[in-house]
Amino acid sequence: MPGRLLRALWQRWHRYKYRFVPWIALNLSHNPRTLRHVPEESKDKVISDEDVLETLLKVFQALFLNEFSKQSAILTMLPEPVKSKYQDLLPMQHPRDNLLETKHEQQNIFKPEEILYKTLGFSITRATSSLISAGRGVFVTKGLVPKGAVVSMYPGTVYQKYEPVFFQSIGNPFIFRCLDGVLIDGNDKGISKVVYRSCSGRDRLGPLKMSDSTWLTSELHNPLAVGQYVNNCSNYRAANVCYQEFDMPAVFPIELKQYIPNIAYNYNEQRPLRCVVLVALRDINQGEELFSNYYTIIS
Description:
4-stranded mixed sheet; 3-stranded antiparallel sheet
């Protein structure tokens, strides 16, 4: 019994140590391939913010149109200039007099991972990692991820560096620290899950959702929202993706905010919503697991 407990604790430590700052400081020199060097914070960009925004808009728009028949409550609340973008599709709504047509439309709705493949040419999913004792990881299940593509997002509650995160951080391996000290809690269990759901419900405007909370479940509406399960690279597994910070613009389409897997902890926070995406460092083939660098050294 004690041996089994020790093994369980060792496996837990093996997964957690890559987030434990003292261990990182002592082992940086022994793991050069797990580091990423950038000249300064402002240059920590593999692709431009414009490219990131273009990809997110493309995927979110495709998801929105895919389930357009379910968006009637949202459409009634949209401003006329926004609603006019979907004017050609509005006659398709509420075919109350034709149940067969409604059934046909429902059958034509694709799964989110299928929309991702149709939009970007690849799909990803969470599965048991190829690394021993690493828990779950993220794999390319279909297609090819080209170099420079946004391959996933890091979901979670966004905390400014002065906001309380102590209790959420206890035993939590899913807290991501941005270069400026902003934290993103990507844990989909425990108090972290409760906090995210509370903040998401707080910011909702009637049927208009300001964030996506389905990443807390097994039925994701945004198939990109699995970045917290991407494992760290090692001396034996080189990184094929890297983290890139991205501030969501204030003019982001309100009808597409329902797919953003992040929410600010502070309702009165005036800063742009911080998001983190993972960008491919090379072409990634079907069946490959994603590996990233957790640590960035600013020189």
